[in-house]
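As a point of orientation, let us examine one representative protein, giving the amino acid sequence and backbone structure tokens.
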Amino acid sequence: MTIVANQFTHVVGVDTHAKTHTYAILSSATGQVQDTATFPTSPPGIARAADWMNRRAGEGQLLVCVEGASSYGAGLTRALRGAGMSVCDVRPPRRTSRRGRGKSDAIDAVAAAQSVLGIEVATLLEPRADGERNALRILLDARRLMDRQRTADRLALTAIIRTTALGVDGRQALTDAQIRAIAAWRTRSRDDKGRQCRAGGSTPVGQSSPCLYHRAGNQQDPHI
């Protein structure tokens, strides 16, 4: 098996953030840091970073190790792979491994590059920022948001029912049938203003809860 240091002449470690990425390029043979730089995460910034890496590597074989290739480094990973560059994912270092060496973006970028030098090329982590994995992540995030919103709506509606005389028993948690009934409420012109306001305030919350329940339920696919 071939290790990274034998196949690539240079390794770049990238410490990724929302606004900037910090890069450190190392010589694979010696592990010596040749240079570090920070560029914006915008498309022009990523293009400048790619040019910087290629200039520093010259004619050698380059491997880019992105810390967080499926999160903050997703855009960078996508752009570099699209340009035909070799990219792998690396995990952030444990806190215990940082003791005695401080904490900075440049230090973390160097650590990302150093972490793969002795690793077999075949065992490098493949970035998975796109495709079905990313689609599933988006789906799960959306479902979690809807679940939280549905819970918040149900609690808000329960608070309204328990503090307002609307003819609904609020001693127990509201059932789905009660919520659907509240969602169907309409204000009537003959109601006094107080009841119109109370019912009008309850109805939108009641309408959103079953809607969110239905949408979240539709995403309970067997393959998830």
